[in-house]
Structure formats: C-alpha cells, structure tokens
Design goal:
The chain is mostly helical. The protein contains 9 helices and no strands. Bound molecules: ligand 1PZ. Belongs to the GLTP family.
Length: 214
C-alpha cells in the first residue's frame, strides 16, 4: 500500500464482514478478502514491528485473489463453492503437505483461525476497563486461539510484538470512530457479524472435516 493512501478506520472493515453473507448465508469471497485487506491496513498503522504478521496475511490474501482472478474464479465466489470445488476435484492435501501447499481450503483455514483471535481480542477490548493493557488482552486472546497452531518461535515473536501495541485508549482512537466510548459502541454493533462469519465457516469446515489441514 502506498504511503498516504487513505486508511479507513476499523468500522468500515468490520462492516465489510457483515456484507460477506449472501441471502443463502454463504460467505462471499471478495468482501471477505476486502475485510482482511482492511485489517492489514489497520495493522500497518501500528508500526513496522507487526510487518511479519501482516506479510503472512497479505501472502494468504494474494493466494485467494489469484484464484479469484483465474479461469476458476466462479468456483471461488464463496467459501462454500471453494470447498465443494476443491474437494470434488481432489485439490486439497488432507493429511500431509503434498501437491497442493496453497489450496484455497488450507489458506482460508489460516485466516479463519486468525478471525477467532480477532473476535476474542476485540471483545476483550470492548469489555475492558480503562486501565487494561492491550498487550495483556492481546496475549490472552492469542493464547486462547491462534497460539495453539503456531510453533514456539512464532509464539515468542508474536508475544514480544504485542508489547509494542498502543495503549487501550490510543488503540480505540486509532479506530477512527470518534471518542473511545463511540469506538466501544461500534465494536458492540460490529462484532456479532464477525462472529457469524466465523461460526458459518467453522460449521462448513467441520462438516467437511477440514479443520486440521496441513
Ligand atoms: C493488533 C495486534 C495484531 C496481532 C495479531 C495477532 C496474530 C499473531 C499472528 C502471528 C503470525 C505470524 C506470522 C506467520 C504465521 C504463519 O505461520 C501462520 C500459519 O500459516 P502457514 O505457515 O501454515 O502457512 N499464519 C497464520 O496463523 C495467519 C496469521 C494471520 C494474522 C492476521 C492478523 C490480522 C490482524 C488484524 C489486526 C487488527
């Protein structure tokens, strides 16, 4: 992203996840990826120490955008279509890494797990007291979710980086919603849609036994 490009606050990003769901409650890929791109932009405003995290997210977003720009784009229009297409055509490594190290299913699974962290973290922030530390909130939500899938070295690097997070009030102001109270209210309105997207994806991946993809 070019310097000086308009960085929208977090509200627009969270609303993007609301617009992922179509009338059949399927998750549309494009707004899902747009939501992730907004999260990466937001993360980048917090300094270069987080770039090893945003780079991984960007790499995963790009894998999915390549599918969406390919001849198979219709098969990636939603998460449901992707699962159906990749499984029917044997395009997923189910047990160990092999021919398809960048399948859509395993790539989305990584983002999906991170979405659980995001929900826990923002919910923690929403219900925190003014004296709470963002680094503690972040570490707790990370340990309760994503950390379980990361090797020691990444857990260590992530937990160190969390100490560089802005204070609670600065973090809430960085969302660009207005006062800290307004930011908290916005989180209360927006978090249910993140939760909904998470739950639908979790059901989809459970149903097809895809939760442990290598
Ligand atoms: C606001 C503070 C941000 C904290 C972000 C918390 C997440 C810490 C994640 C640390 C990830 C480190 C980089 C590389 C990880 C990859 O090994 C894994 C597994 O992928 P594989 O190696 O199997 O291909 N990648 C992930 O788990 C996906 C991580 C995405 C993180 C996105 C964070 C978005 C933050 C938004 C902030 C508002």
């Amino acid at each position: 992203m070019a310097d000086g490009e308009d960085v929208h606050g977090l509200k627009g990003v969270l609303v993007m996840f609301q617009s992922c769901l179509d009338s059949k409650e399927e998750i549309l890929m494009d707004p899902y990826l747009e939501g992730w791109k907004g999260l990466v932009r937001f993360l980048n405003t917090m300094g270069p120490i987080f770039s090893f995290i945003s780079k991984d997210a960007v790499a995963k977003i790009q894998i999915m955008e390549t599918f969406r720009g390919s001849e198979q784009q219709e098969n990636y229009i939603s998460l449901q279509a992707m699962v159906n297409y990749e499984l029917t055509n044997g395009l997923v490594d189910l047990k160990q890494p092999g021919t398809y190290p960048t399948s859509g299913c395993r790539t989305i699974l990584r983002l999906h797990r991170a979405l659980r962290w995001l929900h826990l973290f923002l919910e923690g922030l929403r219900t925190s007291s003014p004296s709470s530390k963002t680094s503690t909130l972040c570490t707790d939500s990370y340990n309760a979710s994503l950390a379980n899938y990361h090797p020691w070295i990444i857990r260590k690097a992530a937990t160190m980086a969390f100490y560089a997070l802005p204070t609670r009030d600065a973090f809430l102001e960085n969302m660009k919603v207005g006062t800290t109270e307004a930011a908290i209210e916005m989180l209360g309105e927006a978090l249910p849609s993140i939760s909904r997207v998470y739950d639908i994806t979790e059901d989809l991946f459970t149903q097809h036994k895809l939760l442990d993809l290598p």
